[in-house]
Design a protein that fits this description.
single chain; 144 residues; alpha+beta; Aminopeptidase; 5-stranded mixed sheet
Amino acid sequence: MIEIRAYLESDEAAVAALWREVFPGSPAWNHPETDIQRKLAVQRELFLVALLGSEIVGTAMAGYDGHRGWVYYAAVSPGHRRQGIGSALMRAVEHRLAAAGCPKLNLQVRATNRAVVAFYERLGYQVEERVSMGKRLFHSFPEP
C-alpha cells in the first residue's frame, strides 16, 4: 500500500539518492541537498514523498505563487514504476494545490522524454505551445 505524506527532515538522504538515480544528467545547480533545503524554507507542505513500507519510492515538490502552480522533482524509483505511484503523487499535489485555490498546474518535461510526456497526457495534461526561458540568478554551486 502506497503512503503519501509530507517530507520530513529524516527523509533527506533517501530523497537525494532517489533524485540522483532518477535524474542522473541533472546540471550541477540541481544539487539535491541544496534544493531540499531551499524547498523547506518555502511551502514545505507541498513537498511530498511516496512510501512503500518504510522505503521512499517517489517524490513530488510543488509550489503555488497565487497565479499558477508548478511541480518539480516528480520522481519514482525505476524499480517501482507502473504501479500507480506517480499518478498517486500527482493526484496528491493536485488536491493540495486545488485546496489552496490554484486554478492551473504547470510542469516541464524534456521534449525528448516521450514516455514521461505520455504519462502526463494520460493524467490529463496537455502540451502547450510555450517557450520555456530561464536565467540563473547566481552562478556559485555547491560541490555534489
